[in-house]
Design goal:
This protein has a single domain (2-63), classed as Ubiquitin-like (UB roll) (Roll), CATH 3.10.20. The relative contact order is 0.29. Strand 3 and strand 4 (41-42) form a beta hairpin. The chain is built from one helix and five strands; from the N terminus they run ββαβββ. The radius of gyration is 13 Å and the shape is globular. Helices cover 10% and strands 30% of the residues. It comes from Melioribacter roseus (strain DSM 23840 / JCM 17771 / VKM B-2668 / P3M-2).
Length: 70
């Protein structure tokens, strides 16, 4: 299946893949700290295990960082 992940076109050699499986496949560090945008919509974390990706989906891994201040 062809996916766009963080702006890069990638061919994943699987017919079925959930968001959780993609996070593991891409070796995302601290997946509990990553939000996932799927086709322009932020996906609820409790749906990562059940949301299956489809050919041509667009996925963004969003990392929120604290900090700032003086």
């Amino acid at each position: 299946m062809n996916l766009t992940i963080n702006g890069n076109n990638e061919n994943i050699e699987k017919d079925k893949l959930t968001v959780s499986e993609l996070l593991k496949l891409k070796d995302v560090e601290m997946p509990e700290m990553v939000s996932v945008e799927l086709n322009g919509e932020i996906l609820d974390r409790d749906k990562y295990d059940t949301t299956e990706l489809k050919d041509s989906d667009v996925i963004e891994f969003l990392y929120f960082m604290g900090g700032g201040g003086n």
